[in-house]
Amino acid sequence: MSDELTNPSVVPAPAPVPRAARAGRRRAVARARVDFWFDLSLLLGFTIAYSYGWTGDEIHEWLGLALAAAMLLHLTLHWDWVIRTTKRLINPRGRDKLVWIVNLALLFAMTLCIVSGILISRTALPYLGVFLAGGPFWSRMHDLTAEVTLGLVPVHLALRWRWLLQVGRRMLSFWPAGRTQ
Amino acid sequence: MKFLRHLGAATLVVGLVVLAGLAWNHFWPGALPGVRTGFGEALPPGAHIPPGVRLAGPAPGHGHVVRITGLARKGKGQVRVIANRPGAALLPLLFEKVNLEVLWRTAKIEAEIIVAVVVIGVTGRRIRRARRARRLAAAAGQQS
């Protein structure tokens, strides 16, 4: 028997990590960093856009349009997760199913909120020369979906709080160590 | 290439949701639940302001509107002054206490929901762990 197995005080030397694995890990850390900051920006953007009484029409509408692009990018960046979890839905764990349902509801609510916002736009789209005929239906839809989104965004975030905490702690508290990982 | 493929798929899904919304408007426009509470509703300058409503700030320049807040419903209808023409005149308005309250209220709602979900999650996890530990202990007791 080797010394490492019989004597617990002898710590075996760590096995050399293959270069490809190290590169993959670096990519994963960089991606986690991008996701973290992008998700926080989305939260901040949504919080400001929802606070219509604070921003006024114009900031609200331009920010809403920016959020539309950001939401599409967010969905694109997490498309692998969407496919993976949807395939697993036949026999999912309870938590996965919950996250999937919350995310689907959020997709519906946020998309309809943005679309109705575009249709009832009073400043941003007319500025671009686009005049759309909204109406009471789309105004009601905008109010309703905005409030549903306000309820779902924090749930969407809170269901991933461990990941957020982990990545946030690594980046904010141990910035130099985070870089070398 | 993979990114473009995913972007296409995501756009398709979003497009389907948009189509669902348009179909909803076309076929069942009356089926939309909820009545406007006044939240998000902007009154044009010069519009009638309901009695008992207090202006929270000045109405500077043209193009400004007043709005009745409807979400918190604290007291009687409070009015916020908002601007639909941003510029130098808007910036000081944004940082007035009465307007910052709107942002603060949104952040507070989000924070409360996050805390509630995290507490429920942690509590559920602890209960599940305790139950599993009891089950394992019982199984170990039976074996011995």
Q: Can you describe what's shown?
A:
The complex is a heterodimer of chains A (181) and B (144). Chain A is mainly alpha-helical. Helix content of chain A is 78%, strand content 0%. Chain A has one domain. The radius of gyration of chain A is 22 Å and the shape is elongated. Residues 1-6 and 177-181 of chain A have low confidence and may be disordered. Chain B is an alpha+beta fold. Chain B has 3 domains: 1-33; 40-94, no CATH class; 96-144. Chain B is extended. At the A-B interface, α2, α3, α5 and α7 of A face α1, β4, α2 and α3 of B.
Task: Provide a short characterization of the protein structure.
Chain A is an all-alpha fold and 181 residues long. Chain A is built from 9 helices and no strands.
Features:
heterodimer; A: 181 residues; mainly alpha; 9 helices; elongated; disordered N terminus; disordered C terminus; B: 144 residues; alpha+beta; 3 domains; 4-stranded mixed β-sheet; 3 helices; 4 strands; 54% helix; 10% strand
Q: Characterize the overall form of chain B.
A: extended
- The protein's oligomeric status is heterodimer
Tally of alpha and pi helices of chain A: 9
Q: What integer is the average pLDDT of chain B?
A: 70
Number of helices of chain B: 3
Rounded to the nearest angstrom, the distance between the terminal CA atoms of chain A is: 34 Å
Helix content of chain B: 40-55%
Share of β-strand residues of chain A: under 5%
Q: Largest interface here, residues on each chain?
A: A-B, 47 and 52 residues
The major sheet of chain B is characterized as: 4 strands, mixed
The assigned structural class of chain B equals alpha+beta
Secondary structure elements and pairings:
The complex is a heterodimer of chains A (181) and B (144).
Chain A: H1 3-6, H2 19-50, H3 52-77, H4 79-87, H5 94-119, H6 124-127, H7 136-158, H8 161-172, H9 175-180
Chain B: H1 2-27, E1 42-43, E2 54-55, E3 64-68, E4 78-83, H2 90-94, H3 97-143
Parallel strand pairs in B: 2-4
Antiparallel strand pairs in B: 1-3, 3-4
